[in-house]
User: Fold these one by one.
Assistant:
Number 1:
Amino acid sequence: MTTPTRRPQLNKVPEVTVYFWIIKILATTVGETCADYLNMTLGWGLTNTTYVMAALLLAALAIQFGVRRYVPWVYWLAVTTISVVGTLITDNLTDHLGVPLQTTTTVFAVALVAVFGVWFACERTLSIHTIHTARREAFYWLAILVTFALGTAAGDLIAEQFALGYRTSMLLFAAVIALIAVAHRVVGLDAVVAFWAAYVMTRPLGASIGDLLSAPRADGGVGLGATWTSVVFLAGIIGLVAYLTVTRKDVTPSAVAA
């Protein structure tokens, strides 16, 4: 009797398109403003907010690991919740434990290199186009969590160290991402290196956007507040995810053909 073989799962992450980057930036902005909304506006406090969001993240990842292929709402739910948790990790280290931002930035940078090193040693690739095993997916989500924590620490360090203001910080991080894109297309920077470098930088970019929109006008912001900023950006995420669910514009070719 022939032993049935387990059907391999399809790539579990979306194609990197303009929609990917737009939703990623929206999610990073929500990571900043939603954490502030729960922590300060609702008065949950940093500890309770961390417990609740960590539980939601575990639930979202359980669903993500349970599906066999890329499902837009499942994937982006995990990204959005991990964005909030990554922010809270850095906030807890800084605000509760008093760890300097220079230290957290260095530690998370080293941790990210370590994750990539172990990932590559085990799988011989860091490409997001081959996330079709549970182990690769575990490395992928661990790397994403560290990038959010690193991006939060590095963004806060730059903002506090140089006191650039929200608009200037936003333009600075956008310029760095643009330079990465130019280096990839013109100079030939490796696609995997360019992707992860840009991925890290979208976190402080999204945080700068969130701070600019939510902060009071007296502090240099637009004055929307954390509540409305979170609502508007969450609505944007939901709308784009619904669009991608219908059109499948971000499904990898192998998954479309399956």
Number 2:
Amino acid sequence: MATVVTVGAHILDVLARPVEGIPGGQDTVVVDQIRVTAAGAAAGTAVALARLGNRVVSVGAIGDDDLGDLLVTIMNRNGVDVTGLVRRTAEQTSASILPIRPDGGRPSFHVPGANLTLTAHAVEPGLLAAANAVHLGGPDVTFGLNDPEFFAALDAARASGTVVTMDLLSNMPDLVRGAAAFLPHVDHFLPNEEQATAMTGEDDPEKAARALLAEGPATVVVTLGAEGSLVATAGGVHRLPVLPVEVVDTTGCGDAYCAGFITGLGRGEDVLESARWGTAAAATVAQGLGSDAGLKDLDSVLALLA
């Protein structure tokens, strides 16, 4: 069992489906389903990793409020070690309300909250070095991690054998470009197409991936939504298609992809096969509501690849 430390954005999601529009006045619309999940590029990935059979420690900042209590309960229930979470009395826990459209689209109402207060001092350097993998989830919105002290801790962990992966949370160009400072300290970077092009200025995802490789990572995996994903290494670029499933909600698919990818690496798979594991994990989540939908165990995810 691999030990993975997830560091970064922790969000509580409230999701409802299907939602075709916001009712006027005081009207009520009856929907099929409402769920509350642990989400964000660190918390959502942490839950997915735990369900895929990894030992997970999650590090981040949440509020000392009811939302934070609920987020901790959900993560504990899924077997995630939350002792790395710090509680902020002056900030609320980051949260989103997501009305999911019938086609799976997901507009959102979002409060950044305590994520903005996370700093390098909340991360125990020894924890990073002791892990098999460290996943940076959303450093574009946890600005305090953009710190030479944290970069040094990442480099020391990598020197001891820890694998470092990174995913982003937002698609806002200024935030995404700010996360480029992390690239020299990362082994595998997994942005979506919009993030990759915003970070590099390249319109083509393959060109964007090659530009990102030049900044330091050994692998860049760009997720392309319905078009699948591409895996770029020094040896070339490979395209992977999506799996044919009925999409209900795309929330958390990127987090699940990261979890599948990291799990594959931890089981000794190469980056291309690990990306196939990520594809299967994302396809599993896409079939239900929320960032952890349908994820039971690794075997059921890999069955989609059979």
Number 3:
Amino acid sequence: MPNSMRDVASFLAHWDHPEANRPPVRLRTSSYGNINTVGLPGVHEADDLDPAHPQWRGAIEPGVRSLVDAVTQDWRLITYDSCQGHLYPGLDLPPAERRVGILPRDRTEYARAAAALCRAITAVTTDLPAAVQVAVGRAELRCETTGRASPVLDLVLRRGTRHGWPAYFDAVDAATRAVTDALRGERPTEDGCHCPVPHSTASTNEEAAWVASRPR
């Protein structure tokens, strides 16, 4: 799947300036629940909005709104992508999992967000339905204007390896409620995560990951 945005710097600047102009955008919903500019299932272009945009709520697919709210309202972080997950019966498209993408403002926010996500996941893992697993992935968001890559974090509710897609979609709303509660019980702070590695090693890896992939 492509992981790119038209203008990352402009998007970041807009997010923290609610007084900036925000023109209307085109939102269309597919028969499978996808919200994008064309109203078609699958991965298609969608405008990059922020919470101050009048159409912000309408641009977030209903199934993932609570996760987006926890990240943007409770944690005050920036989301660059979200998906409620979709089954595509009758189409030659693979199912999509529920996810939220986080775009940290700087390396400090990146480290704190990653640690907070780790703590939340550790706390909630045993409470999830068997058909759903939760994970955080590290990735890069490419700016189509400059070609630069920004480090991002992706929170994903994955299908359990021993379960089919119908079981996943039957359980994903309950899993979402549990993960949302776990996120709201945490905050991105200076505290570390619960990963079973020495703190010095974690710090070194975090720094290396950021330096290797940050925009230059």
Number 4:
Amino acid sequence: MRNIPQLQFVCLITSLVLVTVLAGCGGHDNHNDSTGQVVSELSVPNLAPTTNFSFDIGVVSGSRYYFTDRNNAALDVVDIPSKTFVTSITGAGSLAFAGLGPGPNSMAGPDGATAVGNLIYAGDVNSVKLVDPAASAVVKSIPVSTTGVRADEGCFDATHGLFMISSPEESPPFATFINTSTQTIAAKVTFTDAAGRPSAGLEACRYDPATDNFYVNNDGTTANPHGELVKLSGASIRAIPNGATQNYTTLASVAMYSEGNCDPTGLAIGPGADIAIGCREATTGAPLLLQIVDRTNGNMLASLNAGGGDQLEYDPSTNRYFNAGSRWTANGMASAGGACSAASPCTPVLQIVDAATRTLIKTVPSGNNAHSVAVDSASGLVFVPHSGATAPVGCATCSSNGFTNGGITIYSAK
């Protein structure tokens, strides 16, 4: 096991922050626990030290951790009790994942991964693939478009058997709702704002069973160009005629909450009425934020200098959020254009936030482009895939922190 030192979190108070006081300022750890300690490092097949490892969202289901792997065109499987890499589940023919595809992530897959009963629903180019882990096979493909771009991140309403997945690069972007009993499309919701402008994209979504609402991060609208949190009533979705399409602004009880200068990514439902929003600001020099808001009314509860991530997860067993801060920087401000580069490098970290006090309690180093995170409450383990130190370019700390090869870092959640 490697000994990876804890990063000293740099607290910044800046006049650029036009939101509430930066709760959680200071990254020192006042908790006498092993949170963030590296437990193990797993390799992934077909990755060389210089391979640019293209992966996306991860999820825990039962005693397994699953994450989407575009290099191997597969859903990768890790056995949690033994901390071992098990297999890469691939499809064949029409059931094959797109893999790296012809170019950018928008034309690659698999992407999002969501546990739906005994299956994993994975977003892919033009479709959602259904994976049966017991059979180690892709068993069905549900087409959602024909444009050659991906269905990305999803969320699941287990009460009503409805799975939502966003297609952010469509014009306009839309969300597909799938009836998981019949494995057919129940409805689609398009995202064109009241001014007639298509959304700038869609990011993570979550379903709240306590209030029967879906929440999704909208990348940008006329009113909120750097992002808004959209609340969609579950009842309004189920009221759409079977197979029909409706625009989000026309749905009953829809609400849109401004996220300020956020450029949102991850989303996690926390305790009480809290919902956490990961921001990955594209404005050079803007504070990298993680916001916690009241999901019933959009009121800001805390704004932490702890952003620059993608996937964001809440663990009820520790009452903590875990944010995969792949674009964090040494000064906590967005790099040039919000992207990592040799000229404007990033310092990736896993950020750990106390959900009770809404404060950052620890940051620990992570590997290159480590933007995906999943937490297993039963074992107290956190799973974070990453690329090699040199590909993609722009990681200032990966080599010095020992993240030389691509793989999966397993941390302790407690």
